[in-house]
From TrEMBL:
Function statement: Acts as a chaperone during the assembly of the 26S proteasome, specifically of the base subcomplex of the PA700/19S regulatory complex (RC). During the base subcomplex assembly is part of an intermediate PSMD9:PSMC6:PSMC3 module, also known as modulator trimer complex; PSMD9 is released during the further base assembly process.
UniProt-recorded name of the protein: 26S proteasome non-ATPase regulatory subunit 9
Entry GO terms, CC: cytoplasm; nucleus
Subunit structure: Interacts with PSMC3. Part of a transient complex (modulator) containing PSMD9, PSMC6 and PSMC3 formed during the assembly of the 26S proteasome.
Membership in a protein family: Belongs to the proteasome subunit p27 family.
InterPro entries in UniProt: Nas2_N, PDZ_6, PDZ_sf, PSMD9
Length: 207
């Protein structure tokens, strides 16, 4: 008779997990924002991975319960060939473990999706930062190059040769009419005031 059939006693079924949300989701709920608005950090991803591993451990524990019940698995029938509830397994434990596994597998899919999205956001933010850094580096390089080009601009002439006496030092040095003088001894565009400055340099050289 069915009433005489005793259920086998196995290990206790693993209880279903409590509230299923990640730390980043909880913080987002408290702040009233979205995960995208709050910004993903490496610690958020680490917390998601920790949660994923925790769910995987719970799934394995529930599968161990099924294995302890004659290896009944997720789809084995719970009635015998005569249509009576099986007496060789703990039906309550089997049903509870199966239910937990289904719920945990759904949680696992959700967490894996969150991990994927978080990694995508983190990588996208890193790419944006790299692009900004590259743009700033190029801007700085261009600015530096412009400054150098200004520093290397040709010096301004302060005098033009309009005549040269044959045999003079200027003639011997190879100066020609219309040559521009940008520097003569210590005289240059910055300190030139009159031709007397050049005469002073010549006198000092002769002395």
């Amino acid at each position: 008779a069915q009433s005489s059939r005793a259920s086998a006693v196995g290990k206790p079924a693993v209880s279903a997990p409590g509230p299923r949300f990640t730390m980043s989701e909880k913080e987002t709920r408290e702040s009233g924002g979205s995960p995208e608005a709050s910004g993903v950090t490496v610690s958020d991803i680490q917390e998601l991975i920790r949660r994923k591993e925790e769910i995987e451990a719970q799934i394995k524990a529930n599968y161990d319960v099924l294995e302890s019940q004659k290896g009944i698995g997720m789809n084995e029938p719970l009635v015998d060939c005569e249509g009576y509830p099986r007496a060789d397994v703990d039906l309550y434990q089997v049903r509870t473990a199966r239910h937990n596994i289904v719920c945990l597998q759904n949680d696992h899919k959700a967490v894996m999706k969150q991990v994927e999205e978080a990694l995508h956001q983190l990588h996208a933010r890193d790419k944006e930062k790299q692009a900004r850094d590259l743009a700033e580096a190029r801007k700085e390089a261009m600015s530096h190059g412009l400054g150098q080009s200004q520093d290397l601009s040709p010096a301004q002439a302060f005098a033009i040769v309009n005549s040269i006496s044959p045999g003079s030092p200027a003639s011997i040095a190879g100066l020609q009419v219309a040559d521009e003088i940008v520097e003569f001894g210590s005289v240059n565009t910055q300190n030139f005031q009159s031709l007397q400055n050049i005469g002073t340099v010549v006198q000092h050289s002769e002395g």
